[in-house]
Inverse folding.
């Protein structure tokens, strides 16, 4: 059996990561199931593999997931170039509302369809993206590194906005919020 081993985190899709995350959430997370998702092998094929090969593949998956993802403003997928919302100051109420309602793992692809949209025009280092028409499933196959970098950026931004809001109002920032971002949705409502 031949197995293609991803060389970097961007060779794993957002939907694969979502499936793995949901396994963990449902307490159904096993080494075999993770390898089935990443390497597209059946349970029967997995059970026929040599133990040392399974350990090697598990190590490769661990290496990939240990990669730190950084924000990428643009990326290409299926021949289309996508760009991050260019100016967050101009974000629409619909975009903001949909961002806030799609922060669950099973909806991350919808969240990414809000944040990244096809580029319609590029000029001298800047770009414009398609107008927002609602969430969709187009980002299920987006590179995982791009998705995690975008999500981390917005999580950090959310934490900073809540801290700034609380500090400017004279309120103390709760310790849990300082490190985890918990409460971002409630504080920004």
């Amino acid at each position: 059996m031949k197995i293609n081993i991803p060389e970097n985190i961007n060779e794993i899709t957002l939907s694969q990561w979502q499936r793995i995350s949901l396994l963990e959430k449902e307490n159904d997370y096993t080494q075999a199931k993770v390898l089935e998702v990443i390497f597209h092998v059946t349970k029967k094929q997995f059970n026929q593999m040599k133990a040392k090969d399974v350990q090697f593949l598990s190590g490769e998956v661990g290496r990939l997931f240990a990669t730190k993802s950084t924000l990428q403003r643009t990326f290409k997928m299926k021949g289309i170039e996508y760009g991050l919302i260019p100016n967050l100051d101009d974000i629409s109420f619909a975009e903001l509302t949909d961002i806030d309602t799609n922060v669950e793992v099973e909806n991350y692809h919808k969240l990414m369809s809000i944040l990244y949209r096809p580029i319609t025009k590029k000029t001298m280092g800047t770009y414009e993206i398609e107008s927002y028409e609602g969430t969709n499933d187009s980002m299920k196959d987006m590179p995982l590194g791009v998705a995690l970098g975008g999500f981390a950026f917005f999580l950090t931004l959310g934490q900073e906005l809540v801290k700034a809001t609380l500090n400017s109002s004279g309120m103390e920032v709760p310790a849990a919020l300082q490190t985890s971002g918990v409460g971002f949705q409630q504080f920004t409502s």
About this structure: The chain has two domains: 9-65, 74-154. Residues 176 and 182 are 7 Å apart (CA to CA). Confidence is low (pLDDT under 50) at residues 180-189.
